[in-house]
Amino acid sequence: MAGRTWAPPFPLDLGAVLGPLRRGPGDPSFRTATGSGADAGVWLTANTPAGPGTLRVRRGDAVEAEAWGPGADWLLDGLPALLGASDDDSAFECHHRLVAEVRRRRPGLRLSATGRVWDALLPAVLEQKVTGTEAHRSYRELCLRFGTAAPGPLPDLRVPPTPRAILSITDWEWHRAGVDGTRRRALVAAARVAHRLEDACALGGEAGRALLRKVPGIGAWTAAEVAQRAWGDADAVSFGDFHVAGLVGWALLGRRVDDDAMAAELAVYAPQRQRAVRYVLAAGLGKPRFGPRFSPRDHRAL
């Protein structure tokens, strides 16, 4: 085990910064334990360039972090960026009253940068064109069956499957995990060039997203979801998302909008459009429902 204490030079909302890294309530690679017990804090696992690792982060007067496994030092070195130290919001200007109000109330909401493309890409591909329930179920299944036990004191935490592990999965095992052919092919294609895709973090911005989109099956939505987490891309809006345009439209305009209208409304925030979206989502406003909830499908029954 290795440890580190870090005092952030800015307000820090630990839950808001790390929350987007959690993929559903049953995510076996992420856990939050409240209170003052021995396991208190935010736990996450990762495939790092040095190997698998587990990181625990707790907030007191300063941030206290502990890490286990071959990737421990790498994770501790990346702690400031993970908690938003690389996120520069100094040039951001609020153009809507709601955005200004949330920014005032939530000064600790920053954009995390994990520095890891693959760990963000795997669940993002699984979330393509399905409900969150379906995607999270598949991700959990893949972590439990093809990931590895996480280093450290929590035996039920899992490190997400590596690209090599993804390439070893048979058709039947994909079916058992509820992953259809389209998402399966995208993950296999990405796994074959995963080492090259990590360069997207160094490129950043649109160049990084363009590199990801070179992989068949990875489009603008998936690239944006990865960019938001891997390098804290402040301009990577998830166009094509089933919910985002509606939430942004109702929050900022009081009506339903499509992606084109959302893009037009957010244009004034470029090159920090995603930051504006994060403030809108942090407001917690819903949108009216005009029909029944979309039911998740179970591809294992097909």
Give your account of this protein's structure.
- The protein is α+β, with helices and mostly antiparallel strands and 302 residues long.
- It is built from 16 helices and seven strands.
- It has helices at residues 14-18, 72-77, 79-82, 97-105, 117-126, 132-146, 163-167, 171-176, 181-192, 194-197, 200-203, 205-212, 220-230, 244-252, 259-266, 273-282; strands spanning 2-6, 30-33, 41-48, 51-59, 63-68, 148-149, 158-159.
- The strands form two sheets. Strands 1-5-4-3-2 form a five-stranded antiparallel sheet. Strands 6-7 form a two-stranded antiparallel sheet.
- Strand 6 (148-149) and strand 7 form a beta hairpin.
- Helix 12 (205-212) crosses helix 13 (220-230) and helix 14 crosses helix 15 (259-266).
- The chain is globular, with a radius of gyration of 19 Å.
- The N and C termini lie far apart (45 Å).
Summarize the entry for a quick read.
The protein has about 300 residues and is of the alpha+beta class. The protein has helices spanning about 15-20, 70-75, 80, 95-105, 115-125, 130-145, 165, 170-175, 180-190, 195, 200-205, 205-210, 220-230, 245-250, 260-265, 275-280; strands at about 1-5, 30-35, 40-50, 50-60, 65-70, 150, 160.
